[in-house]
């Protein structure tokens, strides 16, 4: 089954029938409502498109860090775990634009779009979280240190995000990561050649 209906049609029909049967003393005819539902049903759920941004910057000690946040009390899943900024693609938006927007919304940090490097994508319906098709980007931020950036939750959706911080790459084992982001951080830090400059990576 490659597509899934956007409504549970059997449940919807059952609810319409129950509602019509319980209106007034004798109820009302449900056939016109069911006919309209069958004529108008055109929607399908497809797999969702998402992005993840792995942004790296040196701190005051000269250590490379990755921008990350704790998943808050109202996060969809993996509450209390850590992840790099990620989220769903909006209409009329490129994947790079999505990655930059999600990062800003979740952390308040504005990453220059021209600093993003496409890393890879995941589209395996078996291993991908919620079957998302995720485009991953890396950003190596130079000419700045981590304290140059201020965090903000102003654009958060409720309590979606908990603590926000730049995590030293050498300390990532001290955190519990959602979406296998620990492995992604290790892989992408190597791909961006951070280890050429920092023996601690």
Please tell me about this protein's structure.
The chain has 201 residues and is an alpha+beta fold. It is built from 4 helices and 9 strands; from the N terminus they run E-H-H-E-E-E-E-E-H-E-E-E-H.
Helix content range:
10-25%
Evaluate the radius of gyration.
23 Å
- Specify the number of helices: 4
Distance between the termini: 44 Å
Mean pLDDT: 89
List its salient traits.
27% strand, alpha+beta, two-stranded antiparallel ribbon, 201 residues, single chain, 9 strands
Task: Write the topology of this structure.
Layout lengths: L3 E2 L3 H13 L9 H10 L3 E2 L3 E10 L5 E8 L10 E2 L2 E3 L6 H13 L8 E7 L10 E13 L15 E8 L12 H11 L10
Please provide a brief summary of the model.
It contains 4 helices and 9 strands, in the order βααβββββαβββα. With 201 residues, it is of the alpha+beta class.
């Amino acid at each position: 089954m490659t597509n899934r209906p956007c409504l549970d049609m059997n449940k919807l029909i059952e609810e319409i029938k129950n509602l019509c049967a319980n209106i007034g003393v004798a109820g009302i005819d449900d056939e016109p409502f069911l006919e309209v539902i069958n004529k108008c049903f055109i929607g399908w759920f497809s797999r969702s498109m998402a992005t993840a941004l792995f942004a790296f910057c040196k701190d005051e000690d000269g250590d490379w860090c990755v921008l990350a946040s704790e998943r808050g009390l109202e996060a969809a899943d993996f509450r209390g775990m850590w992840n790099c900024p990620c989220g769903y693609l909006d209409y009329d938006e490129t994947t790079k634009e999505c990655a930059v927007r999600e990062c800003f919304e979740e952390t308040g940090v504005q990453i220059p779009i021209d600093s993003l490097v496409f890393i890879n994508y995941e589209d395996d319906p078996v291993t991908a979280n919620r079957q998302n098709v995720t485009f991953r980007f890396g950003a190596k931020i130079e000419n700045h240190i981590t304290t140059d950036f201020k965090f903000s939750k102003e654009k958060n959706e409720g309590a979606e995000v908990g603590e926000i911080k730049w995590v030293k790459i050498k300390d990532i084992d001290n955190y519990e990561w959602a979406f296998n982001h620990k492995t992604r951080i290790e892989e992408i830090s190597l791909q961006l050649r951070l280890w050429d400059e920092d023996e601690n990576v």
